[in-house]
Amino acid sequence: MNFSKTSPSIYFRHVLRRLEPAFYIAPSFIVLGVVLLYPLGYSLWLSFHRWTMRTFRQGVPFVGFDNYSTLFSSPDFLNSIRITFTFVFLAICFEFILGMALALLLNHEIKGRGIFRSLILLPMMCTNVVIGLTWRLLLNYQYGLVNYYLGVLGFAPVEWLSSPRVAMASVVLVDVWNTTSFVALMLLAGLQSLPEEPFEAARIDGASGVQTFFYLTLPLLRPIILVALLWRFIDTFRIFDVIYLLTAGGPARVTETVSIYVYRYGFQSFNLGIASAASFIMLLIMLMIAGILARSIGREIGGQ
User: Fold this and answer.
1) Domain map of the chain by residue range?
2) How far, in Å, CA of 164 to CA of 254, rounded?
């Protein structure tokens, strides 16, 4: 359009027409800014200030990076990072192995396949609060059904949630039970989208099932696997509710993840400066690892 030969009113209407979509989506961005950006910005501001319940009335002094240096010199915080990565690694490994096995099983023509698909969705239909409370009752040392049936089989009861040697395994078990079905469904969707020609060629060449799996299925599934790992990493790294309901970070802080550490300092000790700094360290770690996985996904998709 040649605007030099048009009247100002036509030019103005054209500009309004171009800006019209922005007016429609502006309320959504305003709401997002209020409920997301403002709390995030305020939390970032708090991470550079000293805010405690006892001293905030006298002022909130700027302390620079003191909160961050305090965290990196704190054995409790470093331990919470180690616990978080341990939990993430164990949970994702078991979820991937079991999810792949379920996906491969459900990808075959078996009787009742639809029923099995519905059954593995049951854990995903429960909220995390219900899951945490239910498993807390099941794993109770005195009255839990798990120890009851262990006693029926002649085994001694286990301190599932109160023993430092067993608590982490118990928490990982609950998370694996809860989210393996999600990984299985993603991998099943990927398996059903794979082309048939390479597998037919492998069968004609006499490739075994193991060779087909490692040299065909896994490489072709790599983008789907990376997406599943990305989603599970983000969800597992920030987990709070299930672990808090099961162990509250105990015993002896062997299950205290970074989220529970932030909760302890922010809502129990009311040291919001330390809690905000810890939450941003957690956010940066999550963004870096998620960014690496996202770039890997982009390279895999671009290379196909």
Assistant:
1) 3-39, 71-303
2) 6
The tokens for 298 are 């982009």
Measuring CA to CA, how many Å separate 103 from each of 130, 145, 191, 199, 221? 26, 30, 8, 17, 12
Looking from the CA of 16 toward its CB, the CA atoms found within 13 Å total: 6
Per-residue pLDDT of the chain (304 residues; tens, 9 = 90+): 454 555 667 777 777 788 878 888 888 888 888 888 888 899 999 999 999 888 888 888 999 999 999 999 999 999 999 999 999 999 999 999 999 999 998 888 777 777 877 788 888 888 889 999 999 999 999 989 999 999 999 999 999 999 999 999 999 999 999 999 999 999 998 998 888 888 888 888 888 888 888 888 998 999 899 999 999 999 999 899 999 999 999 898 999 999 999 999 998 889 999 999 999 999 999 999 988 988 888 776 666 5
Cβ(240)–Cβ(263) below 8 Å = yes
As given in the structure block, the two tokens for residue 265 are 């300092």
Q: 136 near 245, Cβ under 8 Å?
A: yes
Q: How far apart are CA 303 and CA 253, in angstroms?
A: 44
d(CA 113, CA 108): 8
Tokens of 90: 């164990």
Was domain 71-303 assigned CATH 1.10.3720.10? yes
- Residue 233 one-letter amino acid: F
Q: Which residues pair with 49 in a beta bridge?
A: 62
